[in-house]
Amino acid sequence: MSDSKQIVNHVEKLALLEISPEEKDRFSEQIGKILKFVEKLNELDTTKIKPTSHILPVQNVTRRDSPVPSISRENVIKLAPEANNEFYIVPPVIQEFQEA
Amino acid sequence: MSLTSKTIQELHSLYRSKKTSVQDVVEASLKRIEETNYHLNSFSHICRESALAEAKKLDAAGMPENASMMWGIPVGVKDNMCIKGLPATCGSKILKNYISPYDGAMGVCLKKAGSVVMGSCHMDEFAMGSSCENNAFVKVKNPYDLERVPGGSSGGSAAAVASSQVIVSLGSDTGGSIRQPASFCGVVGLKPTYGLVSRFGLVAFASSLDQIGPFARCVEDAAFLLQSIAGHDKKDSTSYDYTPPDYSKDLKNDIKGIKIGLPKEYFTDGIPADILTCIDKAKKVFCDLGAELVEISLPHTQYAIATYYILATAEASANLARFDGVRYGYRNKEAATLKELYIRSRSEGFGPEVKRRIITGTFVLSSGYYDAYYLKGQKVRTLVKQDFDQAFRKADVILTPTSPCTAFQFGEKIDDPISMYLSDIFTVSVNLAGLPGISLPCGTDDKKLPVGLQLIGPSLGEARLLNAAYQFEKVCPPLGIELKV
Amino acid sequence: MNTDFEPVIGLEVHVQLNTKTKIFCGCSTKFGLLPNTSICPVCLGYPGVLPVMNEEVVRSAVKVCLMMDFMINTYSRMDRKNYFYPDLPKGYQISQFDNPIGVKGKLSIDTDEGKKEIGITRIHIEEDAGKLIHGDGVSYVDFNRTGVPLLEIVSEPDIRSSKEAYLYLKKLKQILEYTKISDCNMEEGSLRCDANVSIRPKGQAQFGTKTEIKNLNSFKFVQKALDYEIERQMNVLKEGGTISQETRLFDSGTGKTKTMRSKEEAHDYHYFPEPDLLPIMVSEGMIKEATFSLPEKPDDKCARFEKQYGLPAYDASVLTADPSTADYYEECAKFCSNYKMISNWMMGEWLRELNERSVSAVDSPVLAKDLAGLLNMIENGKISGKIAKEIFPEMVKTGKTAEQIVQEKGLTVISDTGAIETMIKEVLGKNEKSVQDYKNGKKGVLGFLIGQVMKASKGKADPKKVNELMEKILS
Ligand SMILES: [Mg+2]
Ligand SMILES: [Zn+2]
Questions:
Q1: Which residues of A touch C26 (CB under 8 A)?
Q2: pLDDT higher than threshold 50 for residue A100
Q3: Angle of helix C219-238 relative to helix C162-179, nearest 10 degrees?
Q4: Are A91 and B340 an interchain contact pair (Cβ–Cβ within 8 Å)?
Q5: What residues does the ion ligand 1 have nearby, CB within 5 Å?
Q6: Where are the domains of chain C?
């Protein structure tokens, strides 16, 4: 089970979630069980099987490059927990956390 | 008999002959919802004002000559559907008070048909669950036994139809979330072929598996509601460019000679005897109707749940990343740094089951594990699909129980996710293969709780499925149990 | 440059496509709109929305693939690249991972040692993120740019100097400009570059530890940043230190790079296929259609200019540097057959005027036809080259033709034999010593004497005629 605790500790960071220390044991145990259950798939030899990422037998679905009016700024920005009239507002973005 | 217990066909005739107004029906529906919702918690939001206004508008305009069968019909929608001006909370604290700024495809279709949206129905948080117990606000009750769950995740939609709060409702089905609550609540529930109904406006759980579908008290009503939402939508790339047939037209055709496949892997020791008895009776009914029963094999069934949990959680982990407290939804106000804002908003906003699935889903995608889990899952999905392709060479329709259990008591399975997941055993393969499946009541178990029968069709085989279901329903005796509300 | 070490450089370029709408929704891609006004539920990642691919994006990508000899993948697919950042509304970027639209492209650059081929690993389609504005204790997010279509072009680590990097970028920009799929405007961010750099002992096959430099928003900065980083890494190695794998930021103020994020903090993007978008299967038909609309490649055009117009290689390369300059040249050449003179003028007066106004050839203040008209007047002896140089700025300023200006100002060349003879005699009279020198065999003074005549005529005398008559009179 310590294995699955490690997994939870690692994935928590990737998923930006925090499991309270009280919950963590129970949670790790459950995730451990789930992963063990899922390992059942290893019984199958799938080396020659193609993965299915889309069940629909359709490709090349595109749209025309013609503009559609945007939604008004007031109508969406009012849904934001924090914003002024023009911008969404977040705590200061520090460099260490930057991505591109 | 109250107006809200009527069928769509009956209401349509009443409207046509001007014996009843939409306002009468909508008021009856509101009355029923407001009287019973305290017990059932099926509705998370009731649109009293807008429903009445819409009814008034419809009455004033009069019923058009070529009115859709859905004209003037009160409908409930699951709380994960985006209709402009309506809350869509997905049973989650993170979307508490969220009101959709746009109309999803289902909103557009319902408006176009002239249906009246009565409100949104409670569900498991982000459609993750089989009991509606994973809801941040309430527990939805089973209208046949208030101590028991309505099933999930579309439990509110199922309970609302079962208790005649509305005529029909919409749910969404990712691994059985329409069919299982339909079976628990003794109603008809259909999950359409992946791509038949637009997902635009459905808050995604697992994008490659999700489909919207109808709940109804009879097969014909389900056909009418499906008709109004099925068809191509340019806003959903995964929508079939396909013109659906008239689903109600062929319901009355006999089903003599159709081949009903019985997957041997589904009829194992796991199913309780009382459920099996109902299914056996159903088989006999089909024989009497002239159908031929054939044994088929779906050998990868035993891997379907594991595959489902890998793929669904992986997709969900990405689909739920947008809930970060920046543009909408719950936000922790004290967070001083960006990272803190994300972690606290998400950790406080999501419930335990959602977190568990995000963690699982992120893990199966993470570097070093992708091939062993996610890729493997996609490959097994191919095998599951191939099983069905084979099976439909021998059978026109496949018959299975909908669920290995009937409505269980609150708390019975909540602490054991695997046992909860296993209750989806008969339904998930259908989502993996993108096929249509319908659940319809076929009797009761020893506890006098509804038992569901599932029929599975080939891709875009909804018309055939509905036809078989209709013929079965016609001769199947009523459940003979009473609502507790 | 230390001879014991060599730098190994790979470049990642993001190109903003100039489609009318964003990649997955109908919002406008116009630059400079008010903040958060070109947004919709789709590009803002509202619950329930779905993306639909802009057909023009695929078309543009295929064109670029063909222009740079990419192998086009017949099965290409969008993937989700998962990470959290406030400018990324969905919590993932829709990009391409293991099935990009094109692989194994190449382009050749002209180095001092001759042509060099730079391999291009891959080209893929993705969406842009929004913009962050850092304020007083908070950051502001503008989502207008979110969902603008990008092509990411990743080179092989084939580049060996900052100069080569510069040449590669210049060439890449040239091809993109020819293909007309991007504005290629670095100030507006429609062309952005990140550089990967490592150092290794010459002759060693294995690569050294690399650093990635971000925030390079001009070609000059790329060169500067690379020079600094190469020097820095070399010093570290010479002092016996080791390079740590990290992302560095270029500070254009100081000309230095500094650590932004170390490898330990790097993200696991847990890519997976985007379920909301179906695969892109590039068909023969799509390739044919794209091929049909493809422009002449810059290298081909350059070679053709040399051959067709008899231009020196240098002239041809300058004139074909960008497609609008080349078009301008060819338009001139329709009206004026002294091709080398057109070239001289365009590379001289014309380009200077353009640079002064910082406009491109399409916005040239003088029409190609009018420049040709001016040059034809020289060619026909109506004006001298000197006068033409005075007329040209006037054309730029007023938009008038050379003909009009000459007429208004009476600048026509004096080609009347009598008048020129009179001027020559006057000049010879004033410069008896030079005349004597000439007669004594110092033929070099002829130029001086002709110059004097031209000066006396205020440049209006027909120089050919002056030359002719002068020799006749002196003999
Ligand atoms: Mg990129
Ligand atoms: Zn948009």
A1: 63, 66-69
A2: no
A3: 150
A4: yes
A5: C 152
A6: 5-289, 296-409, 417-474
Q: What percent of chain C has pLDDT over 90?
A: 66
Q: Check residue C410 and give its pLDDT.
A: 75
Q: What is the pLDDT of residue B312?
A: 97
pLDDT given at position A95: 53
Where in the sequence is the domain holding A31, given as residue range(s)?
A: 3-42
Contact A65 C54 (CB under 8 A): yes
Q: B86 in a domain, yes or no?
A: yes
For B328-334, what is the mean pLDDT?
Answer: 96
Supply the mean pLDDT for chain B.
Answer: 96
**Averaged over B366-375, what is the pLDDT?**
92
Min mean pLDDT across B280-294, B405-419, C72-86, C253-267 is at C253-267
| Residue whose tokens read 């018959």 | B399
Distance (Å) from CA B287 to ligand 1 centroid: 60
CATH code of the domain covering residue B189? 3.90.1300.10
DSSP codes, C357-405: HT--GGG-SS-HHHHHHHHHHHHTTSS-HHHHHHHHHHHHHH---HHHH
Chain C partners of B323 at a C-beta cutoff of 8 Å?
91
Tokens representing residue C429 in the block: 């009279």
Indicate the range of A18-22, B224-228, C125-129 predicted with least confidence.
A18-22
Which residues of A lie inside 8 Å of C (Cβ-Cβ)? Answer: 14, 16, 53-54, 56, 58-71, 73, 76-77, 84, 86-93, 95-100
Within a domain: A10: yes
- B322 and C276 in contact by Cβ < 8 A? no
CATH class of residue range C417-474: mainly alpha
- Beta carbons of C54 and A59 less than 8 Å apart: no
pLDDT at A97: 43
When pLDDT is cut at 50, 70 and 90, the band that residue A99 belongs to is very low
Residue B117 or residue C361, greater confidence? B117
Assigned domain for B262 exists: no
Domain count, chain B: 1
Tell me, yes or no, whether B118 lies in a domain. yes
Residue C238 has pLDDT above 90, yes or no: no
| Alpha-helical segments (H) within A1-100 | 2-15, 21-38, 73-77
Distance from CA of A54 to the nearest CA of C (A): 6
B39 domain residue, yes or no: yes
Number of H helices, E strands in chain A: 3, 2
Kindly tell me if the per-residue pLDDT of C459 is higher than 80. Answer: no
Per-residue pLDDT band for C85 (boundaries 50, 70, 90) equals: very high
Nearest-CA neighbor of B305 among B78, B130, B462? B130
The gap between the terminal CA atoms of chain A, to the nearest Å, is 36
pLDDT band at C263 (very low <50, low <70, confident <90, very high): low
From the candidates C27, C50, C265, which should be mutated to test the interface with B, based on the most B CB atoms within 10 A? C50
**Full-prediction pTM beyond 0.90?**
yes
| Cβ distance of B378 and A27 shorter than 8 Å | no
Average pLDDT, chain C: 91
C36 touches B: beta carbon within 8 Å: no
Q: Is residue A76 part of a domain?
A: no
Interchain CB contact of C141 with B (< 8 Å): yes
The bridge status of strand C272-273 relative to strand C79-82 is antiparallel
Q: What is the distance, to the nearest Å, from the Cα of residue B330 to the centroid of all Cα atoms in its chain?
A: 27
For chain B, the C-alpha Rg in angstroms (whole number) is 21
| CA proximity to B470, closest of B397, B377, B369, B380 | B397
Burial B194-226 (b: 16+ CB within 10 A, else e): bbbbbbbbbbbbbbbbbbbbbbbbbbbbbbbbb
What is the domain-level CATH number for residue A14? 1.10.20
Would an 8 Å CB–CB cutoff place C272 in contact with chain B?
yes
- Domains identified in chain A, total number: 1
Catalytic residues of B: 78, 153, 177
